[in-house]
């Protein structure tokens, strides 16, 4: 789950809905400056489905010790120390499921998702926040997710992995309405063959300026599916589940 706090509650976004926004970004990616993803269908499939492993867990949200929905929030942008406020073993099972769900249908997409997962937990995770007795769980998982390089065309897979990372990152910033400045994860391939970083600046509510601009149209509005939970402190997991089940999904707008 992803959590955006307001004055009278929270917007909650499921991981599959967050990934769908990332896929929508990727669908519009490419212009006179930036290269479009290729092979298009496989890359878009990987980005749209990279968090499908969360669907079952997100359908049964839980609260933290502070009585708020356990989720990725603005406090975790730029860091990855809390593993989205869930138990490590449960977290790794979700990440493993995300790869397994797509592997038989689209091996190319599954490799991209595995690369995304391995990078997330090796390069970005803070091992010091994990209990020492749980580190073997993480290391075993990382070994599972390592992709032998002889099975890859390095440049093409690297570019598409980096696009997944960038679209995922932009979606996370959008879902929590990140008010600071950021640089999308990984430089992105230009049509010239070079790569460049993309800066993201918050210019208004769920509105961002990207520089240089990577999309096919000069200004785009995207839809983000979310549920509003009108509460400040929740009494129990069951209390949150009741609110979540009663909430009608709405569409927030993201402008870039």
Give the SSE layout.
Blueprint: E1 2-6, E2 9-13, H1 15-27, H2 40-49, H3 55-58, H4 88-103, H5 107-124, H6 135-145, H7 154-175, E3 181-183, E4 188-189, E5 195-196, E6 199-204, E7 207-211, E8 221-229, H8 237-246, E9 250-255
Antiparallel strand pairs: 1-2, 2-8, 3-6, 4-5, 6-7, 8-9
Helix pairs in contact: 1-2, 1-7, 2-5, 4-5, 4-6, 5-7
Notes on the protein architecture:
It is a single chain. This protein is α+β, with helices and mostly antiparallel strands and 256 residues long. Helix content is 41%, strand content 17%. It is built from 8 helices and 9 strands. It has helices spanning 15-27, 40-49, 55-58, 88-103, 107-124, 135-145, 154-175, 237-246, and strands spanning 2-6, 9-13, 181-183, 188-189, 195-196, 199-204, 207-211, 221-229, 250-255. It has a 4-stranded antiparallel beta sheet, with helices on both faces. Strands 3-6-7 form a 3-stranded antiparallel beta sheet, with no helix packed on it. A hairpin with a 5-residue loop joins strand 4 and strand 5 (195-196). Helix 1 (15-27) packs across helix 7 (154-175) and helix 4 (88-103) runs antiparallel to helix 5. The longest helix has 22 residues, at 154-175. The model has no long low-confidence stretch (mean pLDDT 85).
């Amino acid at each position: 789950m992803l959590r955006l706090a307001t004055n009278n509650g929270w917007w909650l976004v499921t991981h599959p809905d967050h990934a769908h926004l990332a896929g929508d970004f990727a669908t519009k990616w490419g212009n006179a400056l930036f290269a479009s993803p290729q092979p298009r269908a496989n890359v878009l499939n990987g980005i749209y489905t990279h968090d499908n492993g969360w669907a079952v867990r997100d359908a049964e949200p839980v609260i933290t010790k502070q009585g708020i929905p356990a989720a990725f929030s603005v406090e975790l942008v730029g860091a990855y120390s809390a593993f989205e406020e869930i138990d490590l073993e449960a977290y790794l099972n979700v990440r493993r499921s995300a790869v397994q769900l797509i592997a038989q249908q689209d091996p190319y997409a599954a490799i991209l998702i595995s690369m995304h997962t391995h990078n997330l937990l090796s390069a970005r995770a803070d091992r010091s926040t994990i209990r020492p007795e749980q580190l073997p769980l993480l290391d075993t998982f990382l070994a599972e997710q390592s992709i032998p390089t002889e099975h890859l065309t390095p440049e093409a897979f690297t570019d598409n992995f980096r696009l997944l990372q960038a679209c995922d990152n932009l979606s996370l910033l959008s879902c929590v309405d990140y008010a600071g400045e950021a640089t999308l994860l990984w430089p992105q391939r230009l049509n010239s063959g070079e790569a460049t970083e993309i800066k993201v600046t918050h210019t208004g509510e769920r509105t961002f300026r990207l520089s240089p601009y990577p999309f096919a149209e000069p200004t785009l509005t995207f839809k983000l599916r979310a549920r509003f939970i009108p509460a400040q402190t929740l009494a129990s997991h069951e209390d949150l589940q009741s609110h979540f089940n009663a909430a009608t999904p709405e569409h927030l707008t993201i402008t870039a």
